[in-house]
Amino acid sequence: MGRVAYQPEFLARITERRAALRAELATLLPPSQALVWEIGSGHGHFLVQYAQAFPAKYCVGVDIIRDRLNRSGKKRDRAGLTNCHFLQAEAREFLEALPAGVTLREIWALFPDPWPKKRHHKNRILQADFLEALAGRAGQGTPLYFRTDHTGYFSAVAALIPELKTWRLDPAASWPLEKETVFQARAPAYQSLVAIRTSHPARPAEITAPRPPPRVGPR
Ligand SMILES: C[S@@+](CC[C@H](N)C(=O)[O-])C[C@H]1O[C@@H](n2cnc3c(N)ncnc32)[C@H](O)[C@@H]1O
Asked: What residue numbers bound the domain in which 42 lies?
């Protein structure tokens, strides 16, 4: 398949957005911080409760929808928490923009968009490249908590993890806190799994789309 040609203005906007995110993260995150990261934190129900239950853990939720982040921020403020932050960011861009010393101590993906149509599966966040990129920031033993009401998405991730050297399924792992999220409340049923980061080195992964095309040298 040919490479998609992106408009220069589009690429410039992305580059600018990523630079702004990098700067924001460098200011927000203490150096060498180990984060609890919630991907697609929605209305913030889970993370606010989690940060309250574990005050020593530094929690960051990212979502792409501003209104949800505003609601999350209000919940956090009402609870008077200083260990919980919400940021507007695309998950892959967030991961890429994390300052060098920052690591992930826990990763939460609760009801991530399932993209049910087959031709849209490529848009699902939990895929091999992204899991590899997560592994690059997660120390050995870091848990990834995944919950979904979409059986196809669940089976795909459950089948994928054992194929990766960087993660292993842990059927015995416990779920440290139960707090119903907005999407969980709407789901008639759901499934959960916990994957644990192994000691296998992560391979460098190109995770974010789209990237500026490579520079063309003199011809
Ligand atoms: C189905 S909702 C689940 C929200 C929440 N976790 C819950 O259980 O109620 C998925 C959330 O992920 C966010 N989201 C989707 N794709 C994302 C991405 N690539 N990066 C960050 N957030 C994303 C959406 O805006 C939405 O709030």
From this structure: 8-197
- Supply 88's token pair: 């507007």
Tens of pLDDT, residues 104-136: 999 999 999 999 999 999 999 999 999 999 999
Q: Whose CA is nearest to atom 12 of ligand 1?
A: 40
In a domain, 202, yes or no: no
Residue 5: its pLDDT value, please?
Answer: 75
What was the pLDDT predicted at 205? 61
218 assigned to some structural domain: no
The answer, yes or no, to whether any atom of ligand 1 lies below 6 A from the CB of 149, is no
> What is the C-alpha separation between 215 and 203, in angstroms, rounded?
24
| Ligand 1 centre distance from Cα of residue 73 (Å) | 16
Domains contained in the chain, number: 1
Q: What's 137's domain CATH number?
A: 3.40.50.150
- Is 63 near ligand 1, meaning CB less than 6 Å away? yes
Atom of ligand 1 nearest to the CA of 110: 6
Characterize the bridge pairing of strands 191-197 and 167-169.
antiparallel
CA of 7 to the centre of ligand 1 (A): 27
- Cβ(90) – ligand 1 distance below 6 Å: yes
Residue 2 belongs to a domain = no
Residue 97 CA to residue 92 CA, distance in Å, equals 9
Q: Per residue in 22-48, pLDDT tens?
A: 999 999 998 889 999 999 999 999 999
Q: Answer whether residue 137 is part of any domain.
A: yes
How many C-beta neighbours within 10 Å does residue 188 have?
A: 5
